[in-house]
Design brief:
about 270 residues, alpha+beta, 2 domains, 8-stranded antiparallel β-barrel, about 20% helix
Length: about 270
C-alpha cells in the first residue's frame, strides 16, 4: 500500500507540472494578424499612418496621431477580427526611438464601430521596440541594379543607442522596382484581463522605382506609399507561477520519498 500511495502522489505532482502553463495562461493570445488598406508618409524622423476614407469600419478622421487599417488575414486568437477595421499610431524618433525600449500603449487598436465582427474588441497591441535595418550603406547611392540591398543612415538619427544613425528600413531592388521593410516588437494585450503575449511584426511597402529614386525623394521631403504588415503573437510564460507549482510538486514527491524510504536501525 505505501508504494501505491507514493505512486498516486507522483502522478498528482506530474499532473501539476504539466498543467502549470494552463494555470498561468488562462487565455493566451496567439496567432497571426495581417493588416493593410491604407498608406503611410515617411521622413527620416517619423512615420505617419494615413486615414483611408474608404474604410468605413474604422472611419475618418481617425483619433489624433492615428491612421486606420483593415484586417486582411487573421488566425487563432485574431481570427474573430478578420475583416475588422482599426487604428494604428504614428511613430517618431522623439517618442518611439530606434533600437531602444519604449512603451507605446494601444499602438494598434481595433475599432468598435458598428459593422465590425467583434464589438467591443478585446485585443490591443502595445509597441516596445523598433529594430535597426540590417543591410549595408555602401549600396544606397550605387547605380540601381536588381538584388541590391540598403539600410540608409541619417545624421538626425544618431544617438547613444544608434551611433551610426541607421534607419529602420531594409531596402531591396527588384527587377521591376523595390521594396522597403522594417521590424518591430511588443506585447499583444487582452483588454478585459490584462494578459499579454509577445509579438513580432514586419511592415512592408512596394515601389515601382528603384530604392535610389525613393531615397532621392526622401532627401528632399517625404515619401507616401501603401503598406502592409504582419504580426505574430506567441504566449509569454509566467515563470513565477510555474516555479511555485513546480516547487510544490517537488515538495510533495520529496516528502513521500522520505516517508516511505527505509529507516536505518541503530
Amino acid at each position: 500500500m505505501p508504494t501505491r500511495k507514493f505512486l498516486q502522489s507522483l502522478v498528482t505532482a506530474t499532473a501539476l507540472t504539466f498543467t502549470a502553463p494552463a494555470l498561468s495562461l488562462a487565455a493566451p493570445i496567439f496567432g497571426e494578424l495581417d493588416i493593410g488598406g491604407s498608406s503611410g508618409t515617411v521622413a527620416p524622423l517619423f512615420l505617419n499612418f494615413n486615414c483611408n476614407s474608404a474604410n468605413t469600419l474604422a472611419p475618418c478622421p481617425a483619433p489624433a496621431n492615428y491612421g486606420n487599417f483593415s484586417t486582411t488575414g487573421a488566425t487563432n486568437s485574431f481570427a474573430p477580427y478578420n475583416t475588422q477595421g482599426g487604428d494604428i499610431h504614428n511613430l517618431s524618433q522623439a517618442t518611439t526611438p530606434l533600437n531602444q525600449t519604449f512603451n507605446l500603449p494601444n499602438f494598434l487598436i481595433f475599432s468598435g464601430t458598428a459593422g465590425n465582427p467583434v464589438i467591443p474588441p478585446d485585443i490591443a497591441l502595445d509597441l516596445h521596440f523598433i529594430f535597426l535595418g540590417v543591410d549595408p550603406q555602401a549600396t544606397c547611392t550605387a547605380a540601381p541594379t536588381a538584388g541590391q540591398t540598403c539600410t540608409p543612415a541619417f545624421a538626425a538619427l544618431v544617438s547613444a543607442a544608434n551611433p551610426l544613425g541607421l534607419s529602420a528600413f531594409n531596402l531591396q531592388n527588384t527587377q521591376t522596382g523595390s521594396t522597403a521593410s522594417f521590424s518591430v516588437a511588443g506585447t499583444a494585450r487582452r483588454i478585459s484581463t490584462g494578459e499579454t503575449s509577445a509579438f513580432n511584426g514586419v511592415f512592408t511597402a512596394q515601389f515601382t522605382v528603384p530604392y535610389q529614386t525613393v531615397l532621392t525623394q526622401l532627401a528632399s521631403g517625404t515619401v507616401t506609399n501603401s503598406y502592409s504588415a504582419t504580426f505574430l503573437a506567441t504566449p509569454i510564460p509566467e515563470p513565477g507561477t510555474a516555479a511555485l507549482i513546480l516547487g510544490g510538486a517537488a515538495l510533495v514527491v520529496g516528502s513521500r520519498i522520505r516517508r516511505f524510504a527505509p529507516r536505518r536501525r541503530s
